[in-house]
Amino acid sequence: MDLTEPISKTPYNYYGITLNNSRVLRFVGKQAPSILRLQLMGWGMSEIERLIRSMNSFLKNQDVVFELLDDLQYLLFVSTSSFTGNFHYGIE
């Protein structure tokens, strides 16, 4: 299925404003399960929601990695400074 080709030659209508096909980006989602089809009133499953969920998961994991690296950097700094004796943080 070529997403650049319009579904029909009829231009898109957005609140009474005719839009050119080059200004519309279609997302073709998965078909909803039979339980949800009535709730969605014929619409498919949202691809944007799926994208946002995966992006949030990625960003949360990235934040955790940065926090761990920051803690490791602090621990390495404290351990090397206690070795040299140049700094004193009250940690015995």
In round numbers, the mean pLDDT is 77
What distance lies between the first and last C-alpha atoms, to the nearest angstrom? Answer: 67 Å
**Backbone CA Rg:** 27 Å
Write down the domain tally. Answer: 2
Work out the number of β strands. Answer: 2
**How many H/I helices?**
2
Percent helix among the residues? Answer: 40-55%
Low-confidence runs of at least 5 consecutive residues: none
Strand composition percent: 5-15%
How would a crystallographer describe the biggest sheet? 2 strands, antiparallel
Structural class, by secondary structure, is: mainly alpha
Explain what this protein looks like in three dimensions.
By secondary structure, this protein is mainly alpha-helical. The protein has two domains: 1-45, no CATH class; 46-84. 49% of the residues lie in helices and 7% in strands. The protein is built from two helices and two strands. The chain has a two-stranded antiparallel sheet with strand order 1-2. A hairpin with a 2-residue loop joins strand 1 (12-14) and strand 2. The chain starts with 11 loop residues before the first strand and ends in an 8-residue tail after the last helix. The model has no long low-confidence stretch (mean pLDDT 77).
Secondary-structure blueprint:
Elements: E1 12-14, E2 17-19, H1 34-40, H2 47-84
Task: Give a summary of the structure in a few sentences.
With 92 residues, the protein is mainly α.
Features:
2 domains, mainly alpha, two-stranded antiparallel ribbon, single chain, 92 residues
